[in-house]
Amino acid sequence: MLRYLTAGESHGEALVGIVEGMPSGVPLTADMINHHLARRWLGFGRGGRAKFEQDQVHIYSGVRFSKTIASPIALRLDNAAYTRDKSGWPQVMALDGDGEGIDPVTLPRPGHADLEGVRKYGFDDIRPVIDRASARETAMRVACCTVARQLLKEFGIQVGSHVLRIGKVGWQNEESWCEQRNELLSNGAEAVNDQADQSQVRILDEELSNACVDHIKEAKSAGDSLGGVYEVIVTGVPPGLGSYVHWDRRLTGQLAQAILSIQAQKAVEIGDGIANTSRLGSEVHDEIYLNDARDYQRGSNRAGGLEGGMTNGMPIIVRGYMKPIPTLIKPLGTVDMASGEPQPTRYERSDVTSVPAASTVAEATVAWVIANAFLEKFGADSLDEMRKRFADTT
């Protein structure tokens, strides 16, 4: 099975990652990873870091002649904030010394990991919590998960996403966007990406995109932030990935965990899960029939491609719900940990919204889950062997 680890702090020298378990022969280059790292910076409303952070991955091992060789893949992403930003991060995040002369951060921000991280690990400075809990960590996650994405691509499995709503502006119900989405899906999920990436906020409608931009500008002027909703779609998935036989093998649970593991994500939906709760059963379940080729088909996809914790051959549809970013220009109330006195929070450089970026990170984490399930069913030591097993089974 596939495994990956990330390490590094937001304002440290670099982020590093290790991917283990990838079969040999999978095409992989730095450019393939960098493409998706660049997409992570998409979206109107990003903060100052987006102006100078140019993520370029360095592959140290596990690849030869642009293909994986089955050994662990080591990756590195340098943090431009450490070397280019003039804020003294090499001193603040120094590996050696005792921190003398560095002012501690003692104002925990509501909505962040700050206070609970300090209480859990016994720090007297919030900085270690801020830097590891930061969404900057998702850059290395995207890099690691892109390796899995390359494996899926070899079997015609594509992963895409688009934004449904930012704050109060966006699509109101599934019926309002499904026709346009489904038309794109006829060419695979990456066709959704191609169109969504043209929008400043990754919404598949120009009028709604412009309205979202205005909404973001209003929130920024008010010193506030916005959350939102996005949808991840996976096409080309064969039936039978995952299993109903034990709770931790159900793909629905694994996908939910993948979304909720991303910073600031607070809810997840599989298919039309929320809307289905208020419908009659006859309006919810996807009827089964045989097509002319005697293959099982569904008349609809309200289940989001998953039944009993297993894929049913329809596109997988997962929606993530992101809370507003808790770092605000307009201060909230907090308590100074050093003095115990009430204080307003202080602003740290941040985005107004990063829902478009979150949608691309969610693509990566979903791709990882699907790749692991695919390997469980068709796994082998090399890509060629996997192709044979896949062909024999399907």
Task: Please explain how this structure is put together.
The protein is of the alpha+beta class and 394 residues long. The chain contains 13 helices and 17 strands. It has helices at 30-39, 80-83, 89-92, 114-121, 127-133, 138-153, 174-185, 189-196, 206-221, 251-260, 273-276, 355-378, 383-393; strands spanning 3-7, 14-20, 58-61, 63-64, 67-68, 73-78, 158-166, 169-170, 228-235, 265-270, 288-290, 296-298, 306-307, 310-311, 316-322, 333-335, 342-344. The strands form 6 sheets. A 5-stranded antiparallel sheet has the order 8-7-9-15-10. Strand 1 and strand 2 (14-20) form a beta hairpin. The longest helix is centred in the last third of the chain and has 24 residues, at 355-378. It is globular and about 75 Å long. 42% of the residues are buried.
Task: Please outline what is shown here.
The chain contains 13 helices and 17 strands.
Could you give the topology of this structure?
Layout: E1 3-7, E2 14-20, H1 30-39, E3 58-61, E4 63-64, E5 67-68, E6 73-78, H2 80-83, H3 89-92, H4 114-121, H5 127-133, H6 138-153, E7 158-166, E8 169-170, H7 174-185, H8 189-196, H9 206-221, E9 228-235, H10 251-260, E10 265-270, H11 273-276, E11 288-290, E12 296-298, E13 306-307, E14 310-311, E15 316-322, E16 333-335, E17 342-344, H12 355-378, H13 383-393
Antiparallel strand pairs: 1-2, 2-6, 3-6, 4-5, 7-8, 7-9, 9-15, 10-15, 11-12, 13-14, 16-17
